[in-house]
Structures are given as C-alpha cells and as structure tokens.
Write a structure and sequence with these properties.
Mean pLDDT: 96
Low-confidence stretches: 501-506
Shape: globular
CATH topology of the largest domain: Aldehyde Dehydrogenase, Chain A, domain 1
CATH architecture of the largest domain: 3-Layer(aba) Sandwich
Distance between the termini: 98 Å
Radius of gyration: 25 Å
Number of helices: 16
Helix content: 25-40%
Strand order of the largest sheet: 14-17-18-13-12-20-21
Bound molecules: nicotinamide-adenine-dinucleotide
Length: 506
C-alpha cells in the first residue's frame, strides 16, 4: 500500500472558530477517532450553552455591524472569489485534514471535494449581483416592488459523509446572499472546515460572518437550533434527526428550516438498457461508492425479470472487485465504515433481511482493515420485497437490494418508495419510457442511463417525501437564503371631491 500522507503528521485545531478566533472556550474535550486505523487524530471541544451563545452573538453582531449584508453585492462576490482561490491554493492540506478523520479517500477529496468548495464560492458569488428583485404587474397607479433580503443568522448543521462538500453547499450560498453563518460540522469529521474558515478571514470576509461551532448533535446542535438569535436553519443528516430539528425549530421561534435527509434510491434497469455491461458497472458503483455512505446511494436495483440473472451476474463481478484500506492509501477502493456501531447496524439489517427470506449473492460480512478498522463487504441481496427490513430502512452501507418487474407500470410502482424520494435512475434506450418514468417517479433527482456522476452547481439537489424539502445548489439553493419583501408605492391619488358634489351626485 502506498501512503499519500501520514495522518500523525497533521496538526488539528480542537476549538471553535468564533468571531475570527480559534478557542475552545473552556469546553470539555473528547477524542476524534480515525475510521481508517482507529487512531486518535486529536480532541474536540464540545460546545457548552455559553459557546453556542457566543457563536450566535458573533454572527448576529457581524450581520448588524460588519457591513457584509449591506456592502455592494459585487464587492461581496469579489471576496468570495478570493476565498475560492485560497481554498484551491490549500487543496492538499484541506484534503489531508478531511480524509484523515472521514471515510473520503484523499485523492478524491483533493481532486473533487475541495474543488466543490471553491466552485461553490465562485458559482454562488456570481448570484450576488445577478439575482434581482421584481416589479410586479399591478394597476398603473401603483408600483409594487418585490425586494429580497438576507434572513440574518443562518445555522447550518451537516453530517460526516461528505463534510466539506455538504458544508459548502450551505455556507457559500448563505453568505453570498448576505447572511452570517454558524456552521456545526459533524463531531466525527470536524477539522477541515476550520481551515476553510481561516481562509475566509484571509480573503477579507469580516470577522464573525462565518463561525464554526464544534460538538455533539444532541447538545451543541440542538442548542444551536433552539437559539433565539438564529433566523434560518439549513440541515443535512438523517431523517430522524431532521424531524427533531424541525420540531425544535417550530417550538423555538417557528424558524424556517430546509432539510436534506436520507434516501432509499432505486436504479431501474429495463431489458433495452444501452450497454448492459456499462449499466452493471454504474449500478454497482451507485450502491458501493464511498462504502455506500452516500445519501443518494442507489441502494435498490429494480430489474426487468427477463435479464435478471444475466445482469445480476455482471453486477456481482463488479461488487466483488475491491480493495479495503485507509483513506490515505493510494490503492484503496473500499474505504472504511465510519464506526463500529454503524458496521453493526449494517450487518444487523443484512442478517435480519436474510432471515426474512432474501437470498445473499455476495458480501454479508464484516472485514477488518488497518488495526481492526471497520469495513463491510459489498453485499447483494436478491428477492427483496417491500416488507423486508432492507427495503424499509436506509442502510448507509454498501448493500444493494434487488427487486424484479415484468411491466413498465410495475417498474415505476416499485421504484417509488413509500417513505423516501431523494434520487432515482432509469436505464433504457427508449426516450419515451425514460421520460415517462422520470416524470412519474417521486424523487428530487432522476438520472437517465447514469448514476450520480452528473451533478452540477446549476442543478438543484434535494428530496421529495421524507428525504427532505428545500434544495441545495442551483438558483433555488441561493434564493432560499433570502426572504421576500413587498414594497408598495402609490401613485398620486385623484383629489377628493368637495363634499357638496358628493351630495349632488347622491
Ligand atoms: P445525523 O442526523 O446523525 O447527524 C447530522 C448532523 O446533525 C450532525 O452534525 C449531528 O451532530 C447533528 N445532530 C444530531 N442530533 C441533533 C439534534 N438533536 N439537533 C441538531 N443537530 C443534531 O446524520 P449522520 O449520521 O451524521 O449522517 C448520515 C445521514 O445523513 C444519512 O441519513 C444520510 O442519508 C444523510 N445525508 C443526507 C444528504 C442529502 O443531501 N439529502 C447528504 C448527506 C447525508
């Protein structure tokens, strides 16, 4: 194995980043464990109520006094562009900080994730001076303007699976829209974002506009959601936590919330799919990429019965070709599972589903990586029905559940999940079939003859049903960070008639 860096050489910050300073504020510390070798990367502050308040005050003060919200939009865009350049400059360091404690392989973070951060800053920076208000169609004696304004303090809460990307999808548009931000990363993957925040200062973002609050979800995250000084909440994570966040936001100030949550996304393959070999590779990667720790993982294969055996054989070939290893090893293709508890959950879902009658075609085993690191073998379960556990629950591991169909209507009915609706794919050469399926499947994203590789800042991403509401990315991912105000200007009123005329007219 060729190591691309040594995680023990990395210096990490254990504190929060509040008002431009790194400090743990005297908060208790806990260890942050590397999933790749179970070593301790460093410690982390667990925000107390006082630290939450300090972070939110800092953002509030910056919103009211720093000039970030009121500066010429083009000037704000220029600062975001400078910030993007600094992110690219420090890509190697950011990639090390990110991949040491997450399940993201170093090379992918360096090539892709860091570029999504700089790309988000550039893309949303462009909106600063290009998204305008409106003059609406009212009668000629009035002028009605629709202005848009930043909410104020935006709280962002993100998970551990793509820490930098998912953070950038939130802070870049929120700040481009003129808000000040308090971001809480996952307690499992906290370090790279602190360096991104330091680069913001270097680029000229005023102190307090971007703050990082560290700590556990049930304490720090929950206190952030409930803080009276937070105006808007943008959350990515599990459906259960999303529901809790929404309930807390409702009970503590009726704050607006946007939610990017879990999925159980189908990859539908018709017998007329182009190049079945390529489709099988896409299906396998869709289910196992990042060890299945992807919100839009294509965790269900919905396959036309006439090609089931032949196609599954091809998929299994791809799923059994993998190399486990650390995120910093060049050869790793199957990174670790985030922690032992998650590994046990994956295995539990697989064994329960087997006891419910599914057939195991590959995987179904825990594997030991460096120093006992937790990996799970890519697993294919055939003969899955909607009553089975693997169909109902998001696994968040490299597990593919297979269902078969005989007709187009059956394919669409199976693809449509009763709970989740994050993404779907349809493989066919028939454009009419592809478009009908894309329109009928209730999911926020549908790929035709592909999975996941096609995404772009221009295109909104987010779920239907309990996969969430509100979009990240695209114009919608910017506009949600501004509120609308109507301003009415009345034209000159006709002079009131003398009272006598009224009487005459009467
Ligand atoms: P999680 O819900 O456990 O935690 C997400 C974040 O919320 C973390 O920062 C956590 O500390 C915080 N948190 C936990 N409890 C909280 C509370 N009561 N109040 C406020 N914050 C709280 O999710 P996870 O295990 O970190 O991530 C995996 C989940 O994220 C999966 O379900 C996955 O599908 C989902 N996800 C969704 C998307 C999307 O775009 N739809 C993207 C990535 C991940």
């Amino acid at each position: 194995m060729t190591d691309l860096f040594n995680p023990n050489d990395l210096d990490v910050h254990s504190g929060h980043f509040i008002d431009g300073e790194i400090s743990s504020g005297g908060d208790p510390q806990f260890d942050v464990i590397r999933p790749s070798d179970l070593g301790t990367q460093g410690t982390l502050a667990d925000a107390s109520a006082q630290s939450v308040e300090r972070a939110v005050h800092s953002a509030r003060r910056a919103f009211e006094q720093s000039g970030w919200a009121t500066m010429a939009p083009r000037e704000r865009a220029g600062i975001l562009r400078r910030w993007a350049d600094l992110v690219d400059r420090d890509a190697a360091l950011l990639a090390r900080l990110e991949s040491s404690v997450s399940c993201r392989p170093y090379q992918e973070v360096f090539m892709r994730d860091v570029r999504v951060v700089s790309g988000s800053l550039r893309f949303f920076g462009e909106y600063c001076d290009k998204v305008d208000g409106r003059v609406t169609s009212t009668p000629n004696d009035t002028l009605s303007l629709t202005l848009s304004e930043p909410w104020g303090v935006v709280a962002g809460i993100v998970p551990w699976n793509f820490p930098l990307i998912l953070s950038a999808w939130k802070f870049a548009p929120a700040m481009a829209a003129g808000n000040c931000v308090v971001l809480k990363p996952s307690e499992l993957t906290p370090y790279a974002i602190t360096h991104v925040a330091q680069l913001a200062l270097e680029a000229g973002v005023p102190r307090g506009v971007f703050n990082i609050l560290q700590g556990h979800g049930a304490t720090a995250g929950s206190a952030l959601v409930k803080s009276p000084e937070v105006d808007y909440i943008t959350f990515t994570g599990s459906t259960a936590t999303g529901a809790q966040v929404m309930a807390d936001a409702a009970l503590h100030g009726l704050k607006p919330v946007s939610l990017e949550l879990g999925g159980k996304s189908p990859q539908v393959v018709f017998a007329d799919a182009p190049q079945l070999d390529a489709a099988a590779a896409i299906v396998a990667a869709g289910a196992t990429y990042n060890a299945g720790q992807v919100c839009f993982a294509g965790s269900r294969l919905v396959i036309e019965a006439s090609i089931e055996d032949m196609f599954i054989e091809k998929v299994v070939k791809h799923m059994t070709k993998f190399r486990i290893g650390a995120t910093w090893s060049k050869e790793t293709t199957l990174p670790p599972t985030i922690h032992g508890q998650q590994l046990e959950r994956i295995h539990q879902i697989v064994t329960t589903t087997l006891s419910e009658g599914a057939e195991l075609l590959c995987g179904g085993q825990r594997l030991e990586g460096l120093n006992g690191a937790h990996h799970y073998a890519p697993t294919l379960l055939r003969g899955v029905t909607p009553e089975m556990t693997v169909y109902r629950e998001e696994v968040f591991g490299p597990v593919l559940a297979v269902q078969t169909f005989e007709s187009f209507d059956e394919a669409v009915a199976l693809a449509d999940h009763p709970t989740f609706g994050l993404a779907a794919s349809v493989h066919t050469t028939d454009i009419n079939k592809a478009m009908s399926a894309a329109r009928q499947i209730q999911a926020g994203t549908v790929w035709i003859n592909d999975w996941g590789r096609r995404s772009d800042f221009t295109s909104p991403f987010g779920g239907y049903k309990q996969s969430g509401h509100g979009k990240d990315m695209g114009l919608a991912g910017f506009q949600k960070y501004r509120k609308q105000k109507a301003v009415w200007i009345l034209g000159q009123q006709p002079a009131p008639a003398p009272s006598g005329e009224h009487r005459l007219a009467g």
